[in-house]
Amino acid sequence: MVTPADLMDLQGRLMDRYNSGSWGSGFPDDPSQFGSCFNNFADVPDPSQFGQHTDALLETMTLLAPTGFDTGTSDGSGNPVTGNANTALDQVSTAGIELDDWTGQAADGFFQWSQSWKTGISNQFAAAAVLRQLLHAEAAVWTAALEDLEKLGNDAYAALEAADDEFDTGAGEISTTLKVVGAVVAVAAAVPTGGASLSILAAVGAGVTVASTGMDVYAAGQTESKKFATCCPRDVLADLMDGVRRVEDAVRDAEDAIRAQLDTNLAEIDGNWDEFCQPPPTLTSVHRNHIAAYSGLGTWGGGS
Amino acid sequence: MSEALGVEVGRVWRAGAKKLPEVGDTLETAKRGVSTSLVDLLSRSSGVGTDVSSRFDELRGLISRALEDSEQAIRDCGTALVWAAEDYELTDQAARDAYEREKQRID
Amino acid sequence: MQRFRESWQDVSVQTTSPNGCIHLTNRGDREFRITCDDSWFHRATLGDFTTQLGRLFKLALVERTQAYNRHKEMVTGLQITPIDGSRNPHLQTFVDKRDNLAVEGVSADGTVSIASVGLTHFVITIDSQLWARRDRLAVQRALDEAGTAMVADQFRKMYELKQAGH
């Protein structure tokens, strides 16, 4: 996995190679760009750092899961990441707390509240799934972007070598393929939404761009070609910077799509907070000294 | 108060003191996955791409707050049930006996 | 890249003239060796001979370029494609100058010269006295010298073109 630090090393090697070459008049206006071509990527999200966050979110999902689920992502071996329902949550019901013969106003209130509470948890589960999915999308974008940039840097290095070679006629260009530039903003796997009530969270799954299968989101053929002239460093640098710009554009487009999904979700959650997170039942608002008098609380098993 | 009610009081206490706190603990653990800020992971100083770090972290924060509130609601609910059980225990000998039996069984 | 450069010197590219009677072996960047069927050599006119040579050189250039790119791909993993001048005016200038580059090679004794513009059209001149001797080995030797000199001239001028920044 390519890291931002790898790119800093690579641009240093590019600068060194330029400085050690014999270029006649074919030098670029600003050769120092060889040594700074990847500066914009010095502290971008590091693909190697996403795993701890997506793993933690998977644990959250597992604990909140109202049903068995498929994350729509895959692990390092390409196997689908799935989980089971957490039955511990079923305790939030009159049956779950073994008071299913509890009757009366408080019982009814608790029963209704527990249903809404579980729906809220399902919404939170779906939101965690969306967050994880979008983090995967980010990871995938940056994984591909940094791999593309490394490829550009290596090809630029080889092109400089050829340009500095008196027996290479410069008639052959180095062709490469870029993944992130060719990435098609595609439909992702559906976010698991068992029991969720906020429809937008379900829709988000269908709209999530880029990341549908873990870190590798680019189907075969979804690439663009990039060529490097090998005749002089001026042309090599022009091709290098063109490639860097294309990667930057592609990253911006992909992150714009991710941002749109985030905005949609944030607005939906903000606008439906009580559905997303059920307020406590009225039972809990009764003062300690009045609890015994709380209407209906004393009617278990038909007794009073 | 009936013997039947006394048995139920023990179950009420168990629901409030044991079962619902277990659910609260589950949510507390679930919260760990959304407890770490995503800003450091996703921000960048160069302006390359579209910096989505604050939006990501806002979504993370909302989930974290919802889990916190949901956990608190469950724990409050448990507390209310414990209070109710304790009050019945004070006023009814049969309920008290059942309450103590259940409590000893759990403890 | 160093491994490619070194290993390329051991790669031979063999080309045969359209009539199958003249053979050219290029090895790496320097070796240029002509052989000719003895019986055809003695039957051929000077015009036939130089015509076949000109066609042979055109074919050889194509085959050498392909072999060079294939070998580079194999050793370095890079994908090499013909230069596309249409990508930008600067590259087009390079392509235009390359296609009009005049190169020449002459044998040590001056009896054979090979000249070309853009390596697409070749003019081969063989001294009439040398041809009249019908000494196949002498003609081949002079052609080897002239060809080697032409290749060296081509490398030098292409490098100058690259150094000039087009």
Name the CATH homologous superfamily of chain C.
Answer: Nucleoid-associated protein YbaB-like domain
Name the quaternary structure.
Answer: heterotrimer
Which two chains touch over the largest interface? A-B, 79 and 61 residues
| Principal-axes shape call of chain A | rod-shaped
First-residue to last-residue Cα separation of chain A: 68 Å
| Bulk shape of chain C | globular
* CATH class term of chain C: Alpha Beta
Helical stretch tally of chain A: 7
Helix content of chain A: 40-55%
Main sheet makeup of chain A: 2 strands, antiparallel
**Strand element count of chain C:** 7
Major β-sheet annotation of chain C: 3 strands, antiparallel
**What's the alpha carbon Rg of chain C, rounded to whole Å?**
17 Å
Instruction: Work out the strand percent of chain A.
Output: 5-15%
The stretches of 5 or more residues of chain A where confidence is low (pLDDT under 50) are: 184-189, 203-221, 298-304
Q: From the coordinates shown, what is the CATH architecture of chain C?
A: 2-Layer Sandwich
Proportion of β residues of chain C? 15-25%
Structural summary, described in words:
The complex is a heterotrimer of chains A (304), B (107) and C (166). With 304 residues, chain A is mainly alpha-helical. Chain A has one domain (4-22, 30-89, 97-293). Helix content of chain A is 48%, strand content 7%. Chain A has helices spanning 4-19, 50-64, 105-163, 179-182, 199-207, 233-271, 273-276, and strands spanning 69-74, 80-83, 172-178, 224-228. In chain A, the strands form 2 sheets. Chain A has a two-stranded antiparallel ribbon. Chain A starts with a helix and ends in a 28-residue tail after the last helix. Mean pLDDT of chain A is 80; it is low at 184-189, 203-221 and 298-304. Chain B has 107 residues and is mostly helical. Chain B has a domain at 3-34 and 65-106. Helices cover 80% and strands 0% of the residues of chain B. Chain B is built from 4 helices and no strands. In chain B, helix 1 packs parallel to helix 4 and helix 3 crosses helix 4. The longest helix of chain B has 39 residues, at 53-91. Chain B starts with a helix and ends with a helix. Mean pLDDT of chain B is 84; it is low at 1-7. Chain C is α+β, with helices and mostly antiparallel strands. Chain C has one domain: Nucleoid-associated protein YbaB-like domain (Ybab, Chain: A, 2-Layer Sandwich), CATH 3.30.1310. Chain C contains 6 helices and 7 strands. In chain C, the strands form 2 sheets. Chain C has a 3-stranded antiparallel sheet. In chain C, strand 6 (112-117) and strand 7 form a beta hairpin. Chain C is globular. The chains are: A mainly alpha (304), B mainly alpha (107), C alpha+beta (166). Chains in contact: A-B, A-C. At the A-B interface, helix 2, helix 3 and helix 6 of A face helix 1 and helix 3 of B. Strand 3 of chain A pairs antiparallel with strand 4 (79-82) of chain C.
